Structures are given as C-alpha cells and as structure tokens.
Amino acid sequence: MTRLRCDRAPAWASLQNAFETQGRRFDLREAFAADPQRFAHFSQQAPYVFGDLSKNLIDTATMQLLLELAEQCGVAAHRDAMFAGAAINNTEQRAVWHVLLRTPANAPTDSALEAQELDHVHSTLDAMLAYAEQVRADDAITDIVNIGIGGSDLGPQMAVLALQAFAHPHKRFHFVSNVDGHELASTLARLQPANTLFLIASKTFTTIETMTNAASAKAWFISHGGTDIARHFAALTTNVAAAKDFGIDTTFGFWDWVGGRYSLWSAIGLPIAMAIGATGFREFLNGAHAMDGHFRSAPLAGNLPVRMGLLDIWYRNFHHFSSRSVAPYHSALRRLPAYLQQLEMESNGKRVDAHGETLPFGTSPVPWGEPGTNGQHAYFQMLHQGTDVVPVEFVAVKNARHTLKGHHDLLLANVLAQAQALMQGQSDSGGHKHFPGNRPSTMLVLEDLTPAALGALIALQEHRVFVSGALWGINSFDQWGVELGKVLAKDIAPRMRSGDGSGLDGSTAGLLQMLRQP
Ligand code: F6P
C-alpha cells in the first residue's frame, strides 16, 4: 500500500467535521461523568510502560476516526517498511533501521540483508560491551568524557543520568558537547590524563564542534603529560577512517542506516554501557525491543505509540496546540525533555512532505519541560491559567530507589494532583483564582526506572514520533534544516579575525565588529 498524506485521506474531512461539531466543545469532566469506564477505555499497559490517555480531549468516536485515518494513510505499511530496512529516508536514500540495533542475535530475519546486518550489529555490540567491561574493571580510569553533540550527546547523557542508580560507583561521566570552550575547559580542570578516557562520539566524524573539542582534548592530554593516546581515546563513529587519521586506534563503528538521534542503541551508547555494564546495556536494548514488538504487532487500536501519535495529530492539526510540556516526575529523567526535543523536532520539524511539496498544516509541536515538582513552582502557572492550552505529558515512576521517608509518596501525590487540577479546574468569580480546567494531560507510568523500562520508554517516544511523521507524509529521518547555519558559520569564522564585513547584512556586520577580539 502506498503512503497517503493525512490531509488527502477521507477521514481527514470527517475529523474536521467531528472537531467543529463536538471536538471543540469537548469537556473532560463531562466525559468522565458520562463514562465510568473512561479510564479503562483510554489507558493500556504496553511493555514496561502504562499509558493513561483518558485525561485527553478525545472521545471514542474521534479515536475511531483517527484510527481510520491511520489505516487510510498506510501507517502500518510504512512501519513495516521501516522494520524491513526499506530506504524510507528518501532524501538520503537510506534505510532507517535503528530497531535492528536492539534485535536479539537469534531473532528470525526476513531477508539475507537483514541477517547480514544483524550479524554486524552483534559482532560490534559484543566488542563494544567487552571494551566497556574492560574499562569498568580498570581502576586507573576514573573519568570518562564523552565528546559529541546532538544525537552523539543527548541520548547517552540522558540515559547515563536516568540510570544512575545502576551505575558503576567509581566512575564519573562527563559530557562535553558545546564548542563553547568554557564547557571543555571546566571539565578538563577536574581531570588527570592518567585517569581519563575520552570517547569521541560522532557519526560523521566531521561535526565542527566535536572535532574542535576532540582536538583540544588531545592537545590538553599531551601537554599535561599524557602519552598513550591508544589507551585514553576511543572513537564511536561510522567514519572509522577519519578516526584513525585523528590518531585513534580503538574505534567502534555503526552504519549509515542509524540516524544520529536514534543512535544511542549503537556504539554511541558506549558511555551507557560503561555506566551500567554489559548486562544492563543488554537489558536496555531488550526493553526497547519489547516495545518494538508491541508497535509492530499490536492492532492499531491497542497500540500505545499509535494512539499517542494519533493524539498528537488531533492536537496539532485540529486543536492547533503548538507545544507539549513534558514533566518527568523523577529527577534522574531531567534530560528527557532535551532528548525529546531533538527526537521530535529534528524528525518532524519539516515544512514540506517527503516529495518536497509544501504542507498546508502544522507539523512538529515543541516539546519542553523540566522535572516535576520543579516546574510546578515555575511555569505551571501558565499551564493552569495561561491563555494557551498546552497538553502535558507526565512521566511517573512507581518505585523509588532511595529510602528517604515520605518523599516518594509526596512526589507521586503531586503528579496526580497536577493532572487532576489541570482537568478539574476551579471556579472563582473574582477571576484571579479561576482555573478553567479541561486542560489535557497524558500519564506514562513505569513500575521502576530500570534499564529495560528506560529502553521501552525511549522506543515508545521514537515510535510515536514515527506515527505522526508518517501521517504528515514527511521524511522524519533527514535534517536539512541544520545545514544552512553550518555553512554560514564557516563563512563568518574567518571574519571574526579579519573583521571583514563585506557582503553581510547591516546587523550581522555591526554585531561582528562588536563581538570580534581587538
Ligand atoms: O547537525 C545535526 C546533526 O547532524 C544531528 O543530526 C546529529 O545528531 C548531530 O549533528 C551530530 O552529528 P555527528 O554524530 O555526525 O557528529
């Protein structure tokens, strides 16, 4: 079945009609009063993640129309094409096969190519995990510095933080991404060459920020008495030749079918493996694989990533909500919002469809947020009483991994109360204390923040972004929008020294003079 863009499917007009006639006036409080089974109807247990979608502005009839839309647009066929390794990244003619990175070695395969790629995946995984264990057992290495940016930073950093309860107690992890030398300088100031391992993480091994930081780290290493580059530097890249040219012998590769923002399951995940060990990393992959199985085989109506992706379409294209607040009620998930920003906005922040045609509707919302309860004392004011409706996605973890009395109950009471307050609201004739309520939220619940549960949570997010991208008819797997700035920075960099403002607009030329060193 070929892909059909959502606005060209018959269900699109029915959804527009449903929105105008009822959707616009939908009231959550009335919906719960009318349907005592609403919680059951709109929630489900997926592998490791329970999703409660019942506090969203949706009824059964609308969900049914959205499911019809998914069927008419060929979402399942597009999903199957991804799992089969088809070149669905059409502007770069690449497969999108990160799901293979978490496929067990003995899993049945559907083609000779898949079997061959799976072999490569597992031989690299085995080598990378053996190296991770070797470093974990090496008491002389106390500090591991990941130098990478974007997908070569956000995923590993988020996961190492999230899984700190499982991490090696005597290793410190540092993440340097910004070309701003303050970041690298302040990290290096705390390190000794003899105790430090640098991981240079870059899919392309050309990214200017990473190459600049890597060169400075190497210069610091040598100037501070370090001698053994082979022992203290490793590279995680698809461009093994460039890493060797840089002087690095220990390299772990991956493949062009792994997008940067989907690469934490590959060699880019080495810091995670060093933190939680080979067994933990395999559990992390297995959790993601369990979610892949759910996404691949559950009927659309009982498929959590599909239901979440459809809700995203309903909110973005009918309600016109342009952002979503992510509220992890677990401090170890504090980098989750930043990770999701790349995942969703680099994937779906597109204004043309996969054929280059301008889209007549909005695409990626802006995911943003901070851990609860901190956000409550900052921007939740706007979520409850602002003029814009911002759907909130809460992430709660049932079990705590500390023994401090009272904290976890209080934390969970807060996440429940916030979702309740958004929905219930409060009447006040005076205005200032009036909460309109009827504000939507989703609650994702993990039993425990284990490697497997985190793997499943991330795979769930990847697949929900896949679903909305599939419906919008876009290529979610390229990122041309980051290129122009890179080209212009290359032009401006030498001008910072020469002061040459010729050909620049007045503002850029004026600021160049202000910012450049005398
Ligand atoms: O500039 C965007 C981007 O290409 C991301 O897609 C990617 O995750 C990041 O840069 C880093 O790229 P690399 O791993 O090749 O250094």
Explain this structure.
It is a single chain. The protein has 518 residues and is an alpha/beta fold. It has three domains: 6-72 and 299-478, Rossmann fold; 105-274, Glucose-6-phosphate isomerase like protein, domain 1 (Rossmann fold); 481-516. Helices cover 47% and strands 11% of the residues. The protein has 19 helices and eleven strands. The protein has helices at residues 10-21, 28-34, 38-41, 60-73, 75-83, 112-137, 154-162, 181-188, 208-223, 229-232, 240-245, 270-297, 304-319, 336-348, 380-385, 407-424, 451-472, 483-498, 506-515; strands at 43-46, 49-52, 143-147, 172-176, 196-201, 233-237, 250-253, 323-329, 366-368, 392-397, 441-446. The strands form two sheets. The protein has a six-stranded mixed sheet with strand order 1-2-11-10-8-9, with helices on both faces. The radius of gyration is 24 Å and the shape is globular. It starts with 9 loop residues before the first helix and ends with a helix. The model has no long low-confidence stretch (mean pLDDT 97). The structure holds 6-O-phosphono-beta-D-fructofuranose.
Structure summary:
The chain is an alpha/beta fold. The protein has helices at 10-21, 28-34, 38-41, 60-73, 75-83, 112-137, 154-162, 181-188, 208-223, 229-232, 240-245, 270-297, 304-319, 336-348, 380-385, 407-424, 451-472, 483-498, 506-515; strands at 43-46, 49-52, 143-147, 172-176, 196-201, 233-237, 250-253, 323-329, 366-368, 392-397, 441-446. The chain folds into 3 domains: 6-72 and 299-478, Glucose-6-phosphate isomerase like protein, domain 1 (Rossmann fold, 3-Layer(aba) Sandwich); 105-274, Glucose-6-phosphate isomerase like protein, domain 1 (Rossmann fold, 3-Layer(aba) Sandwich); 481-516.
